Amino acid sequence: MTPRELVDHALTLLLAKDMAGFAGLWATDGVLEFPFAPPGYPTRLDGRDAIADYMRDYPSIVDMREITSRTVHQSVDPNVVIAEFEAAGIVVASGKSYRMRYIAVITVHDSEIRHYRDYWNPAAAAELLGGAEQLSSAFHGGSHE
């Protein structure tokens, strides 16, 4: 699978709420990083198991229903793509509309994600979820420091 195909497949899995399948796209020792993570939120997850644990409850937090825009840029390195996309859905706890833009730099080897840097806006996410404390507890319950 090419890096572009992998991004498309990853977004399809997110929409299908298949978090185990989504985490399964990572290499066993793959990394997920959050460079803009707020205090108390994990900045890095090491390994497929940690990523699976982190993503497991995502559908009970955000009911992602649509990818409203998607652009994948090929870098000069054939194993690296930059994905820009916007997700829309519902915040499960409040029923409020959820719309968030993401940019990710993704490195793929042997059809597996080796490194994924997720540049999302934590201030916007906190606002959508009801505050910084709700954001921090929703995605990891304080267990991924």
What descriptors fit this protein?
6 helices, 145 residues, Nuclear Transport Factor 2, Chain: A
Task: Give an overview in words.
By secondary structure, this protein is of the alpha+beta class. It is 32% helix and 39% strand. The protein is built from six helices and six strands. It has helices at residues 3-15, 19-23, 48-55, 58-61, 122-129, 132-140, and strands at 26-33, 44-46, 62-74, 80-91, 97-109, 112-119. A six-stranded mixed beta sheet has the order 2-1-6-5-4-3. Strand 4 (80-91) and strand 5 (97-109) form a beta hairpin. The longest helix is centred in the N-terminal third of the chain and has 13 residues, at 3-15. Residues 141-145 have low confidence and may be disordered.
Overview in brief:
With 145 residues, this protein is α+β, with helices and mostly antiparallel strands. The chain has helices at residues 3-15, 19-23, 48-55, 58-61, 122-129, 132-140, and strands at 26-33, 44-46, 62-74, 80-91, 97-109, 112-119. Helices cover 32% and strands 39% of the residues.
Strand and helix layout:
Blueprint: H1 3-15, H2 19-23, E1 26-33, E2 44-46, H3 48-55, H4 58-61, E3 62-74, E4 80-91, E5 97-109, E6 112-119, H5 122-129, H6 132-140
Parallel strand pairs: 1-6
Antiparallel strand pairs: 1-2, 3-4, 4-5, 5-6
Helix pairs in contact: 5-6
